[in-house]
Amino acid sequence: MALGASLIVAIGAQNAFVLRQGLLRQHVVAVATICFVADALLILAGVGGMGRLVQAAPVTLRIVTLGGALFLAAYGLFAARRALHPGRLEAASDAAPGLRRAVVTCLALTFLNPHVYLDTVVLLGGLSTRFAGSARTAYAAGAMTASAIWFYGLGFGARLLAPLFQRPLAWRVLDFLIALVMWTIAFTLVRDVFQ
C-alpha cells in the first residue's frame, strides 16, 4: 500500500485533472472511478506478468512514450491558455464541460501517459515478483487500496480549497503549475527516449 501510494500521489497529469474537477465539483465520482479502475486493472496486469512483456518490447515502449509526451505537451498548452484567461470557481456554471468531455479527457490523461504504465505495470508489477500466492494478492490489493483512497480523497477533498479558488488569481496559479508539470513530464519522457 505504501509503495502504491508513493507512486500514485506524485504530481502528474491525472492528479492535476482530478484536483481541478474536484475544485469545480464536476463529475468527481466518474473521474475518480475512472482513475481508480484504470489503476486497479493496470496493477493487476503488472502483477499478472505483463510488466515483463512490456520491458521486452523497447520499440513499442518508445513509440508510446513519445505519443504520451506529445499529448502531455498539448494538455500543458491548454492549461497555459487557461492561466492567461482565468475564470472563477462557480458551483453551477453553464460553461462547465459536460460529463462526456470530462470522461474522454480523464481516459486520455490516464491511458496516453506512459508514466501510468511504468508505475503500475512495470514497477509495481516487477516488484510483485518477490511475492507468491496470497502475499502477491495482498500486495496488489494494497496498491489498489492506496489508489482508491487517493483518487476519491483528492476529488472530494478538493472542495476544502474551494474558498481559495473563488479568486481568478488562484486558478491562474493552479493552471500555470499544471502547465509546468505537463511540460516537465513531456520533456523528461522525450529525454529518456533519446538517451
Spell out the blueprint of helices and strands.
Elements: H1 2-8, H2 13-24, H3 28-55, H4 58-84, H5 99-111, H6 114-127, H7 134-157, H8 168-194
Structure description:
This protein has 195 residues and is an all-alpha fold. It has one domain. 78% of the residues lie in helices and 0% in strands. It is built from eight helices and no strands. The protein has helices at 2-8, 13-24, 28-55, 58-84, 99-111, 114-127, 134-157, 168-194. Helix 2 runs antiparallel to helix 3 (28-55) and helix 4 packs antiparallel against helix 8 (168-194). The longest helix has 28 residues, at 28-55. The radius of gyration is 17 Å and the shape is globular. The two termini are 32 Å apart.
Give the domain tally. Answer: 1
H-E string = HHHHHHHH
Report the portion of residues in β strands: under 5%
Structural class: mainly alpha
Low-confidence stretches: 89-94
Q: Note the total helix count.
A: 8
- The coarse overall form would be globular
Give the integer mean of the pLDDT values. Answer: 82
Number of strands: 0
